[in-house]
Amino acid sequence: PSKARDTAWERVRSGPAPLTDVAKLCVCDLLVAQCDVNCCCDPDCSAADFSLFTTCSVPIVTGDSHLCSQKAAIYSLDTDANPPERVFELVDHVNPSVFCIHATNYEQALSFSSPEIPTAENFDELLKKFGSATFRAEPDSWSMNSDVPDPSDANETYRYEYGVPIQTVDAFLRLPSPVVSSWCSDANPAGFLVHQATKCVRSISVENCGNIQAVSMLFYINSSILAVNISVQSIVVQSLNGMRTLLNSSSVLRHPMIVDELCINIVLGVSYHITYTDTGEIIEAAASFVLGAVNKEALTIQQSFEINFTQVNTNPVPFSGNPGYVVGLAVRAGFKPQGYPFPIALLLSALNTNKYGQLTILQSTANQDCLTAQESRTPVLFGYNMISGCKLRITAAMNCQPLAQVLLDLLMGQSFPEYVASFGNSQAQDVLDWVPITHLHTSEQRISNTFQSSCQIPVALEIEVKWTKYGSLVNPQARIVNVTATTTTTTLKQLPLGRERTIPITTSVVFTDISSPAEPGYKAWPTINAKLPHDFFFPFV
Amino acid sequence: LLPLETLNNSYQLSSIPLQLLFYINQFYYIFYFVVTLTMIVYKSHVFSYPDQFLALDLTLLCIMATLEVLRLYLGSRGNLAEDEGPLGLSLAIMIGSIVLSVYFLVWQTYVLKVDVIINSVLLLMYGLESVLQVLTIAAVVG
């Protein structure tokens, strides 16, 4: 009994046995338990049905015509009889050709193989064989050399490409975002290297603020990105009137709680910082939270979410273009540390002109007095010619040398860079991608009397940035070729007591396009390639 | 026993029909080899012929050709020199040839009608040759 059950189970698992009896095969029998029209082989048809047919849609059913002798079922309608009746004959069909198959010792030769029914045991193997877009017609046992598995598949779970959703343990890392209206939808996956910043609205009420998952910190750190846990980087608490305070200890998870008719520790904003390596693996993930409070009257809150990506061992200096500069983004600049033949990445970015490694110039203020100016500087944006300045009021009591130093600091800033990045995405470790700033000095007036060693004070700084179009004609990239900083000085004439003079101090930035025009190129003349075949003189050579 | 002819007062033990059969056999075998090879190529194009079966059939055909050449040479030489050694060796090799011919008749991957015809003729020839060879060996030895 168990053996019969096993064989029955085997039959079920391998599918029904193929039908090879030509007398029972009928291709036109499509309707079950009903007679198909003009189908002479349909077993559901009675003699009365046959008498109504006009032709037989399937006149003959045979096996493989290559065989030397095979059975054939021939169906025809005898229209002479009244009523017409169907004639069924089972004959031996002989193939007269001398190349007919007399016998075959290979079972799969003449019939389609029945496919394997997937079960729990063979599912993985079948998926591996047939799960991709294409697969070989012959089974793997036939081929001598099977395909070498792609070595990159081994680490595929950990390597990301641009735009691929970041996988977490159960699903994807979600960044709530507004979909059709401004209501938050939790289904937006975060793509790798895709910088996103979204704002959306969520409905909330004080009574059940503890039950809504999406306003609790746990919801956003709960899912770990495939072996990397999301850590809490910082927590900022925003009070009801909008004042934000940075918390000292950010390791404690704060859950929404109801205190004095207010619901506090509600998540108002999350900012994810993902660190990745250059092979596409995510090694670190951190989230910064903004927690706030809602009172009884509030029905909705606005949440803002952001995600950004930093490559490991680099500082998060934003690119100004990839690779060419984009008009409107800041020009990147930096220093080369003394004594090093090539810049070291961390040092270079640490000593930059401003925190973000940008070239900056003096910013004009409403109060145009240079000496009381608040040291505010604005970054130089690529492609935007800028001019700024202030007015210097000179009194008789001023000393030249300290004044010159103050003005120089004002014009150049605390640390004027030495190098400017030639491409928007230049890395600090590629020295050749950085262009040195050339300094020139001119004097406003010709020094007429050389006897007086009068001191010169800088009054103008002009930065000229020469850039060119680089790359293909279809998609040219802007590349900075030359940066010249020209300082203009003038003589400070001693003023008589009580008199004041005002001189303008200006800074300007000019971008000049020095790209050479495209040269036309013509196709080469066609040449006649006439060569005798190498074995033309066959018997002799 | 075949009537022994006398020539210069000595009996000729070589069998003329056997020599005739060897002569016809070598030409027929060339024809057989070409036809079988062509049929294997045809089968591999028209039907699905997996690589290992194809390799097996081709190898056996080459072995059969080698055996046939050896057999015909030894048999012909033994018959003409009236030497029972080569004749006996040739008979032994014929067993291998018969097995291979039966393989191509019955156990090949695809047996076409033309395969059946030429293998049957070959087996018939082998049968006749074996009988004549046995008789010649008996005459030479005895």
Explain how this protein is built.
The complex is a heterodimer of chains A (541) and B (142). With 541 residues, chain A is mainly beta. Chain A folds into three domains: 73 residues, no CATH class; 148 residues, no CATH class; 179 residues, no CATH class. Helix content of chain A is 9%, strand content 32%. In chain A, the strands form five sheets. In chain A, strands 7, 8, 9, 10, 11, 12 and 13 form a seven-stranded mixed beta sheet that branches. A seven-stranded mixed beta sheet of chain A has the order 14-18-19-21-20-22-17, covered by helices on one side. In chain A, strands 1-2-3 form a three-stranded antiparallel beta sheet, with no helix packed on it. In chain A, a hairpin with a 5-residue loop joins β5 and β6. Chain A starts with a helix and ends in a 28-residue tail after the last strand. With 142 residues, chain B is mostly helical. Chain B has four helices and three strands; from the N terminus they run ββαααβα. In chain B, β1 and β2 form a beta hairpin. Chain B starts with 5 loop residues before the first strand and ends with a helix. The mean pLDDT of chain B is 91. At the A-B interface, β4 of A face α1, α2, β3 and α4 of B. Chain A: One of its GO terms (cellular component) is MKS complex. Chain A: This is TECT1 protein. Chain A: Keywords: Cilium biogenesis/degradation, Glycoprotein, Signal.
Pick out its properties.
heterodimer; A: 541 residues; mainly beta; 3 domains; B: 142 residues; mainly alpha; 81% helix
Provide a concise account of the structure shown.
The complex is a heterodimer of chains A (541) and B (142). Chain A is mainly beta and 541 residues long.
Percentage of residues in helical conformation of chain A: under 10%
- The number of helical runs of chain B is 4
Q: What is the C-alpha radius of gyration of chain B, as a whole number of Å?
A: 18 Å
Structural class of chain A: mainly beta
How does the overall form of chain A come out from the CA principal axes?
elongated
